[in-house]
Fold each of these.
Amino acid sequence: MECPCRLVLDMTAVDTLTVKDADMYVSAANGFAFKDVLDSNRFGTTYEVSVPKGQAKVWVYAGSEDLAGPDGLSIPYGQDCPEIYMHFSEVDASGEYVREDIVLRKNFCTLSILVDEGKSFDHQIAVRGNVSGYDSS
């Protein structure tokens, strides 16, 4: 059996004023999966996970309000997207040790479309975004 790779997740860039806790999910070769909930006392330091050598995927997200599922985050139809902060990376874990910086980025916005009710509106409106990581179902 081959020795695992030590995956070190550097949490020092996580903004503790914005993020109070985060969900972490790591997957790797041979169906390996690891989950944990990180509270703010884990930020500002590193976190280690031993993974099988090969490619590993790291998801860290905050503010998901139980929207996480096997295919990412899913926002129920008609509901607003909560204030979500996310990190995703694919890591080459083929060596003995690899370090990955975790940077949680804002992954939501507020969009307001105002239509004057007193005027005729004979247009269609479509909103599209370059969004990855969650689905509107």
Amino acid sequence: MDINDVLKHKAIINEFYIDRRAAGVVDSFLMKLTVDGKVYSIHFNDVFKVDMKMNFGIVAGDVVNYVVKGCIQEKDKDFFEKWNPVLGQKIISDLISYEIHLLPAGSTIQIIAKKNAIETRAWSWLIVKDIKYRKLYE
């Protein structure tokens, strides 16, 4: 499945990871989701912005309600115009925005990353003697 398929299937979001071990070189955002009993990970590489408005305290998982995928919004253009001199390049045309709306708490996650830097992977989980092993499907 590609990212659009995974996010359309009322996926349940299980985990988030942010990788900035080499800030400016490796800026990644990873989401692990469950769709129809299968675990998927979506890697957003070359991330320029993550804006999370998460509501907690509800005893229910965060389920993808809908996703708005598209161009950079006007409010974000101001942010990038400020940073273009630092980056030394025009980057806005190379970026795509994903705004993920969640149920039941009404949370939203906005991720802005380079268009060609998004990967989706399926994982299978094998449990042996209470130890979890992961195997990447190819």
Amino acid sequence: MFGLSRLARYLPKERLERIIYLMATRVLEQYPELGDLARRIGRSAQIQIYNEFGDEANIWLGVKDGEPVVSRGFHPATNTIRMHIDVFLDIVEGKIDFRQAVAHGVVEIQSHDGLPWFYHFALWASFFDKIKRLLGR
């Protein structure tokens, strides 16, 4: 559906952001309960995907004016997850589970709102499960 391959690691930051943006938008469209949850708990999240060339794609997911929003670029968030493009591809291709990636230390989760990191971990795990379902993995 999104045409991801190992060549994605060589994409310019803008193209990579676009792919992640489309995935996140599609998840919110297909799973409106995630938008409802975001509205209820008032959380926002920043996902950062980087490569070995120093490029970093940033996508923000949150609520603006009472509606769930996906936005490209860096914005203040209640939490941030950060991972290498290869890890991201392995997760969305179903080669590794998000939970395993966190346990192995290849995904970094930062909490910026005083809540423990594992609170945000549970929400992100659900998000990545839904991406994999959309991709048929």
Amino acid sequence: MKFDYRIHTKDRVIIETWPEEFEFKDYKEFKERELIDPDYDPNYNIVSDLRRLKMGFNEKMIEMIVDFISQFPDYFIERKSAIITNSPEQVVNSVAYIQKIKSTPVDVNIFSTAEAAFKWVKETDPKPEMSYPSKLIK
């Protein structure tokens, strides 16, 4: 499985699913696809599901990610970004990512369950009828 995303316009959220192995070229292609999607809206909150990720996501890759997405001025705007993890390594690397973007207005938080991530996003979203996408919750 490669990187994948779904845009839920009703809930104003973008759900990103990361593969088992992180490769920057795949990430770059994935982000380019996402950013030109007609339903993409930079004001939507993001939920990144890293639970399948087992290798390749490290500090060097984090720097490459931040450098790459910094090219898109609408990316680091005021919005919420929830990261779902299930291993200590994913948490450590997610914290490193948060440190790299701490000067931006993006509010990033790390969660161990999809339910908690969506609850947090829902609390900050003006649309109270947000539902949990069932495909993400396992």
